Amino acid sequence: MKLLILTPIFAVIIFASVNANQPNQEIVKTTNDNLVANITNVKKEKKKKPVWLKPGVIGTTLVIDGEPFVISRNQDRKHLIAKIYQKTGRGIIKPMHPFKPHAVETIAEHEMISYISRLSSKKGDVVVVDARKSIWPTLTGSLPGATHVPFYRFKKDKQYALETLEDEFGVVINNKGEMDFSNAKTLAIYCNGNWCKMSPELIWSLLDYNYPAHKIKYYRGGMQAWQLLGLTTVD
Q1: Pick the residue with more confidence: 95 or 41?
Q2: DSSP-assigned letter for residue 185
Q3: pLDDT in tens, 101-143
């Protein structure tokens, strides 16, 4: 697959051989073009450095629901975060490890990308969970491959919670209501940011059901941090 991305500053060509069996390939090749065509005026521009995903890597390819997908950062260096995330007075700042003594791991962007890359593995042992109220994915988009599990519904609707545990998270529940977490999936959970209570509320509810803490990952930065870095979202 060859993907051409044009920005007002420079052109970047990404080459990636996407294979469902090798869904996490890094994209490292860029052009050295110095000229950018403008509809009204053709002029020389100094070439700008790409916005790197990590040193020397501009993006990573993966497969979601059988379709190739590229996660990268927005290449327009003048791109701004969504207005909805510009307010600074929301919520209460969460600690780095708010679930002590439970061994819930707090993760950042590279770890979340790694979990997203595992969504199409044959094991099927990971779920990326958007814990926000239903309006938020509409307003801001979601992380690629995320499953929407509203925190408030999981907390208040026991039937919904049990169905989600079984159908989405790999928990086996017998006729007595006893839960077997032997094949429970790893959950990478996020909400809006380190001030947002929605993913912590969902995580506490999961812990109340005795979901294994080591299989719960808390993306503390959430959608605000994801957008702040210009990372790929989906509608």
Answers
A1: 95
A2: P
A3: 999 999 999 999 999 999 988 889 999 999 999 999 999 999 9
Q: Where are the domains of the chain?
A: 2-72, 83-228
Q: How confident is the model at residue 191 (pLDDT cuts 50, 70, 90)?
A: very high
Amino acid at 165: L
Which residue type is seen at 195? Answer: W
Structure tokens at 34: 């110095």
CB of 126 closer than 8 Å to CB of 217: no
**Do 98 and 200 contact (CB within 8 A), yes or no?**
yes
Give the per-residue pLDDT at 29. 42
Mean pLDDT of the chain: 85
Return d(Cα 8, Cα 138) in angstroms, integer.
Answer: 28
CATH 3.30.420.10 fits 83-228, yes or no: no
101 upstream amide cis, omega within 30 of 0: yes
DSSP 8-state assignment for residue 9 = S
Report the alpha-carbon distance of residue 194 to residue 218 in Å, rounded: 10
In angstroms, the CA 71 to CA 116 distance is 10
Tell me the mean pLDDT in the region 23-46: 44
- pTM for the full predicted model: 0.81
* Cβ atoms < 10 Å from Cβ of 78: 8
93: tokens are 């700042």
